[in-house]
């Protein structure tokens, strides 16, 4: 048996092709992300990875839409979005494949 703590993982990511992780995999990444109300991420896109975001709790804004608990957003390669937590929020995120250097900021955002 092994034991890990989420707070010891980088930004909530616990499976993927980076360290520290619980399971090393180049096939996909898995993270549980916790955001306080008002947290934001700059508009960005991935060239390779498809990202699946499940809103576990709270309300968020992506693609200029409001999403809430139970919504699953699929972001295809090349689709750009910013992120805003409209309330305290938790998301579960899967990226396929694990591509640690595949995050590109949109200029001017």
Layout of secondary structure:
Elements: E1 13-16, E2 23-24, E3 29-35, E4 40-45, E5 50-57, E6 59-62, E7 65-68, E8 72-75, E9 81-85, E10 89-96, E11 104-105
Parallel strand pairs: 1-2
Antiparallel strand pairs: 1-3, 3-10, 4-9, 4-11, 5-8, 5-10, 6-7, 6-9
Helix-residue proportion: under 10%
Q: Unreliable runs, pLDDT <50, ≥5 residues? A: none
Query: How many strand units?
Result: 11
The shape, in one word, is globular
Helix-strand makeup class: mainly beta
Query: What is the count of helical runs?
Result: 0
Mean pLDDT score, rounded?
Answer: 96
**Element pattern in H and E:** EEEEEEEEEEE
CA radius of gyration is: 14 Å
- Largest β sheet strand count, sense and barrel closure: 6 strands, mixed
Give the strand content: over 45%
Alpha-carbon distance between the termini?
Answer: 45 Å
Strand order of the largest sheet: 2-1-3-10-5-8
Structure overview:
The protein is an all-beta fold. The protein has no helices and 11 strands. It has strands at 13-16, 23-24, 29-35, 40-45, 50-57, 59-62, 65-68, 72-75, 81-85, 89-96, 104-105. The strands form 2 sheets. The protein has a 6-stranded mixed sheet with strand order 2-1-3-10-5-8, with no helix packed on it. It has a 5-stranded antiparallel sheet with strand order 7-6-9-4-11, with no helix packed on it. Strand 6 and strand 7 form a beta hairpin. It is globular and about 40 Å long. The chain starts with 12 loop residues before the first strand and ends with a strand. 13% of the residues are buried.
